[in-house]
Request: fold
Amino acid sequence: MKNVLHIITSPRKDLSASRKLGNVVIEKIQEKYSDAVLKERDLTTNPTPLLDESHINTFFTPAENHSTEQQSINKYSEDLISELKEADIIVIDSPMYNFSVPATLRAYLDFTSRAGYTFKYDENGPKGLLNDKKLYIAFASGNIYSEGPFQVFDSNVPYIKNVFGFYGVSDVSVFRAEGLAIPGIMENALEKGIDSIVID
Ligand SMILES: Cc1cc2nc3c(=O)[nH]c(=O)nc-3n(C[C@H](O)[C@H](O)[C@H](O)COP(=O)(O)O)c2cc1C
Reply:
């Protein structure tokens, strides 16, 4: 049995290429693992708050000293992290926004990147605590970033890979619907991304 976590980040619904791509990734995972259990974390309908002082203070206060408010903040963060820990397969729909990830995904990662939960430090430096997971990234962009002069502008896919690599998730596949704003490429960009999907 595979637990699958689908993280959705495009505020667009029917028009969203990353959702369409991510949904096909999910369909293909379900074809491969008929007993897959799917959980959706839609960051657009249920966004993580922007990190403020109360959140940061909570994360750095020992649990036994938490106020009632801090207990609830801590539980919220721990629940997000539990979802990640329980997942065997994680699918992230990731539209390119100003060369990076949507703010909703960035905010989410501020609540999941916690020492002692998703990573730890020891005498050898940082060590990821989420192991044996597969990550699929369903990326959508107006321009092209897989090759060419704008490759260096991509702070989306490499960023997600870095954060999840830091968590210990190194098995990552990326599917791209890219060039969605470029005439001559846009017409087939989503189809090309969908055709590239391989569930390994
Ligand atoms: C706020 C915003 C910022 C964007 N920034 C970029 C960008 O930096 N580079 C790019 O190639 N496309 C950019 N785009 C285009 C989107 O990446 C493209 O429309 C993509 O399909 C969005 O994903 P979605 O279809 O899943 O909503 C941007 C779109 C929006 C709405």
The chain has six helices and seven strands. The radius of gyration is 18 Å. Residues 10, 12, 16-19, 95-99, 140-143, 180 surround flavin mononucleotide (CB under 6 Å).
